[in-house]
Amino acid sequence: MHALKLISTFLKINIQMALAYRADTVVNILLNLMWLGWELLSLNIIFSNTDTLGGWGLGELISLLGVFRLVNTMMMALIWPNTEKFNASVRDGSLDYTLLQPASSMFLVTFSRITVWRIWDLGLAITLIVVGINMTGGSTSLLSVLNFLLLTVSGTIVIYSLWIVLIAFTFWFTKFDNNVTILQALLDSGRYPATVYPVWLRVIVTFLIPIAVATTIPLQALRGELNLIQVLLFFALGVASFVLASRVWKAGVKQYSGASS
Predict the structure, then answer these.
(1) Which of 10, 91, 141, 256 gives the lowest tally of CB atoms within 10 Å of its CB?
(2) pLDDT at position 177, please?
(3) Is residue 69 within 8 Å of 124, Cβ to Cβ?
């Protein structure tokens, strides 16, 4: 309950900040629509020369694009705006004020800044998923939808955990400013199904740096390609990644010396 009150407070503050720059919000939404059009045009060009890509059809790739945009929305709404603030606060010692608050420092660092207009992306992403599934002509069961939602949340947690680990390195390496750039570069591999990559790279993006867990895997669940054991395995991966990230964060906080040292 306390966490929900904090999120509500952060939302109110960030909404007020967004309303102070209404023109920027409108321009950003228009640019976002432009990029979406470019992504769909790129898929259309690809499928004008082939019927499938890695065994996936056009409708399935559009659905995958929707899942990718769901995860990417979290990146753009939370991770990007908070990373710059966090990196600066470690260098100048202002993180002290966050650590002194009666709440989880990891929680505060995550939600202090929210790019509110990115909520628009959620509607676009859901629309792409629904349109893509309809284009494939396949039917989805209630169980498949539930598995999809479960693994989408789990996959998002995996990406979030990767982010926590990367920014936690700033505690040890103060000039580690390219942490999120690395994550964004890795996340771009999730635009396409893991099956388009060679086996060695498929193993990397699924298990070692599990980007596919956040994009390809949830859609496979929606298509009914995963059994119960596989769903539970990938969900457990999300839980394990969060636990590991929390421990790395706590170790980093202990390493942090503060402004007064």
Answers:
(1) 141
(2) 63
(3) yes
How far is the C-alpha of 220 from the C-alpha of 242, rounded, in Å? 22
Query: How far is residue 193's CA from residue 9's CA, in Å, rounded to a whole number?
Result: 38
Classify the C-alpha dihedral 196-199-205-206 as positive or negative: positive
Q: Are 106 and 247 in contact (CB under 8 A)?
A: no
Q: Give the model's pLDDT for residue 245.
A: 93
To which H or E segment does residue 107 belong? helix 105-111
Nearest to 148 by CA among 233, 216, 62, 58: 216
Q: How far apart are CA 189 and CA 205, in angstroms?
A: 8
- Using the Cα atoms of residue 66, residue 53, residue 197 and residue 232 in order, give the sign of their dihedral: positive
Closest by Cα among 105, 107, 70, 72 to 90: 105
Task: Pick out the chain residues at pLDDT < 50.
Answer: 261
For residues 242 and 225, give the distance between their C-alpha atoms in angstroms, rounded to a whole number: 25
> In this structure, is the dihedral angle defined by the CA atoms of residues 82, 125, 159 and 151, taken in order, positive or negative?
positive
DSSP one-letter code for 170: G
pLDDT of residue 138: 66
Task: Classify the phi-psi angles of 54: left when phi > 0, otherwise alpha if psi is within -120 to 50, otherwise beta.
Answer: left
